[in-house]
Write the structure tokens for this entry.
Amino acid sequence: MALIDASDRDPADAPIAPAPGLSELFVAFAKMSLAGFGGVLVWARRAIVEQHRWMTAEEFNETFALCHFLPGPNIVNLSVVFGARFRGIPGAIAAFAGLVGPPLLIVTLLAVLYAHYGEIEALRRILAGVSYAAIGLLFSVAFKMLLPLLRKRDPVAIGLLVAVFVAVGVLRLPMPWVLAVAVPCSIGATYLLRRRTA
């Protein structure tokens, strides 16, 4: 039996750390929001799963799936659900304020500057370059979130993943209708599989 070097382990497999306090929630989500050019999900997963170890990779995926299904921006939903999970309503407020507060101030300032200098061609090229970097980060975090599913080698979960991808990404079916079918199917399949193994 081969020994696994500690450096080869996935940081997401490390033990769970103690629950964060209100100030830790605020600071962590503020850092995520300030680092998250083009999207905070990449930085949220890195901070929550790999850096602070507040959740396992599977717990993060499950929580994000719930937040994706709820109305509103996914990452805002994640901050509220995550904060409430550890510190109740005060935790939800602290995480939400950390996520939204700093960018709100920065974006307000940038909006004023963009209103005056937005027609400069060099600025437009810079913004186009930033958008490509954001897409790369999104692909990176999607792959990291996919790994726990692939490690399980669960054919039902992978089949549902492929079906939803084809329905939304290829066939361009409306997301609410796809979710209305996929969510009950995934819940039913999980229930039946757990009942068989019990």
Remarks:
- Residues 1-9 have pLDDT under 50 and may be disordered.
